[in-house]
User: Which sequence fits this backbone?
């Protein structure tokens, strides 16, 4: 598709072809390709003045996402490799991830982070010394262009280095093969530390399509306005944001006779389950082009559910894409028949992986995900699924979110079940009463933790590993039922 062999070179080709075209719409101003090229050139100079050189890995943990994107290209121009990190993570986690990637330094525009040893203030206000078109963004195609990081929901995030050549091929597949369906000018509100967001930005930047940005700290009103932008064509959102957007529209009395964002060619849910009534309601209220995707870090998008299949199979994640071979296997790797739950295994070309989920295929070939392998719990001889219990606790208590995790008991025998519930801590007595009244002792959690907001990963999944660590370090936050 592209004569250049790196994303940087493909981007410069687009700059040369359409320097005055708009790359970013921010709600208050537009940033052209020429503007953005000048910005990354200034950052290239600033990074060089900080001693950044070819072959280094450099961390970026910013609140300003356009600056992060410019920083990525500026580091490529120096022959360095960017490591995009979530500024919301604890400094210890950021530094630990930087050490694992062998980063020479980490930059952040978040002053709270930049006060920590080992994290430098992101460069600002440096003048460029060359014209934008004098930039060279053609590093060695086999050099590391990006680090794809797993979600870190149930354990420490894993880093997968991707070369410039691999990354460009992945973007070409996204644009050409239809892995992600229709696409166009993208509304974007997710942190660039989420790999899926970076992929969309790379794709649009080298194809001359706009990125309509929403600040990382946004209101649903701001997201709604961006989705109504006359040029908006697609958006990718985490399920928690889709549910929140539905509630916002209902609360504001904005539900109409048809979907609110009927101009979109695609509204994609990615990064977690959006199933059943939540899914069909979102399709009715938000967009008839809503689709659900199921993916893994190792193999990309595995399946998609869209169109009439949402109404007929609302608890499925769709049929596997044509180039994916999906099968369900038992603990020994032996294939299981249709409608029997086991480990989901997927193969693309010569790459076989298990995303870490349990599920089954029905007789029509639709894939169903019933939970993470780590989310199957057993207590007092009774096995149950953590997401099922989380949903029941949310219904009973009216809480916005819930995360059920196992923790070692004081007696050292079977694990305790602890439910971390997103609600006001002052509601403790009421929550206990409801759980005792509506949940049987066999599945009722042993302890609960009430938090105003649960920590989340860059993909807006609940950060289970972080919650587990918090409970281990501060057991006094737990309240017995």
Assistant:
């Amino acid at each position: 598709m592209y004569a250049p062999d790196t994303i940087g070179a493909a981007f410069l080709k687009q700059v040369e072809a359409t320097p005055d075209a708009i790359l970013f719409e921010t709600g208050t101003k537009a940033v052209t390709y020429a503007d953005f090229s000048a910005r990354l050139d200034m950052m290239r100079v600033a990074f060089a003045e900080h001693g950044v050189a070819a072959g280094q890995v450099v961390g970026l943990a910013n609140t300003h996402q356009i600056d992060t994107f410019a920083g990525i290209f500026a580091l490529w121009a120096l022959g360095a490799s960017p490591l995009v990190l979530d500024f919301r993570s604890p400094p210890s986690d950021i530094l630990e991830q930087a050490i694992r990637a062998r980063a020479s330094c980490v930059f952040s525009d978040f002053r709270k982070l930049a006060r920590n040893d080992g994290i430098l203030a992101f460069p600002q206000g440096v003048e460029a010394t060359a014209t934008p078109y004098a930039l060279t963004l053609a590093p060695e195609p086999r050099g590391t262009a990006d680090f794809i990081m797993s979600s870190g929901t149930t354990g420490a995030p894993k880093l997968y280095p991707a070369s410039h050549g691999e990354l460009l091929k992945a973007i070409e597949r996204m644009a050409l093969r239809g892995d992600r369906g229709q696409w166009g000018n993208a509304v974007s509100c997710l942190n660039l530390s989420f790999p899926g967001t970076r992929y969309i930005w790379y794709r649009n930047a080298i194809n001359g399509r706009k990125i309509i940005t929403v600040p990382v700290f946004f209101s649903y009103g701001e997201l709604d306005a961006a989705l109504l932008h006359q040029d908006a064509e697609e958006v990718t959102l985490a399920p928690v944001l889709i549910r929140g957007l539905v509630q916002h529209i209902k609360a504001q009395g904005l539900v109409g006779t048809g979907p609110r964002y009927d101009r979109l060619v695609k509204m994609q849910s990615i990064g977690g389950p959006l199933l059943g009534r939540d899914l069909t309601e979102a399709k009715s209220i938000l967009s008839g082009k809503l689709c659900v995707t199921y993916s893994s870090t190792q193999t990309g998008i595995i399946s998609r559910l869209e169109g009439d299949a949402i109404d007929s199979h609302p608890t499925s994640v769709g049929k596997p894409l044509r180039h994916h071979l999906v099968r369900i296997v038992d603990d020994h790797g032996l294939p299981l028949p249709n409608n029997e739950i086991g480990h989901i295994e997927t193969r693309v070309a010569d790459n076989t992986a298990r995303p870490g989920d349990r599920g089954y295929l029905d007789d029509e070939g639709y894939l169903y995900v019933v939970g993470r392998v780590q989310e199957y719990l057993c207590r007092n001889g009774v096995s149950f699924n953590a997401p099922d219990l989380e949903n029941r606790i949310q219904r009973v208590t009216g809480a916005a979110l819930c995360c059920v995790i196992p923790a070692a008991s004081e007696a050292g025998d079977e694990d305790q079940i602890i439910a971390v519930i997103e609600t006001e801590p002052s509601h403790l007595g009421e929550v206990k009463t409801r759980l005792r009244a509506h949940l049987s002792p066999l599945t009722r959690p042993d302890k609960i933790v009430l938090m105003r907001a649960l920590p989340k990963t860059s993909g807006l999944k609940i950060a289970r590993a972080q919650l587990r660590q918090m409970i281990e370090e501060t057991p006094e936050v737990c309240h017995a039922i």
User: Anything to note?
Assistant: The first helix runs from residue 7 to 17. The chain has three domains: 7-202, 218-373, 380-480.
